[in-house]
Design brief:
3 helices; alpha+beta; 28% strand; 99 residues
């Protein structure tokens, strides 16, 4: 199944860091998301895009996982030559991950 079938996303960016949160539609799916959507899987999914580490923060009270991806924006949003390497583009790409 694709991640977008059980979750939605919110995003942000600052400098060369992208922040993508995955929020379960149904709280009963949250434990499965915690098991399957690991920092390692996210880093592999963004292979070639995210050059730095991927940190995961668990927000159990709202059934969300927040991923902070370092060295992810080609030097920063205003410096990158890539088209839409931030924000909504990152969330759409992550939500397309097979889980």
């Amino acid at each position: 199944m694709k991640l977008y079938e059980v979750a939605h996303s919110r995003t942000g960016d600052k400098g060369n860091i992208s922040n993508v949160s995955i929020i379960a539609y149904d709280p009963k799916d949250y434990a499965m998301l915690k098991e399957k959507v690991t920092p390692e899987r996210v880093k592999e999914h963004f292979k070639g895009i995210v050059k730095g580490k991927v940190a995961r923060y668990e927000l159990d009270n709202i059934c969300a996982l927040n991923f902070v991806m370092y060295e992810a924006l080609g030097g920063g949003v205003t410096r990158s030559l890539s088209v839409d390497m931030h924000g909504k583009g990152f969330s759409s790409y992550l939500l397309d991950m097979e889980i």
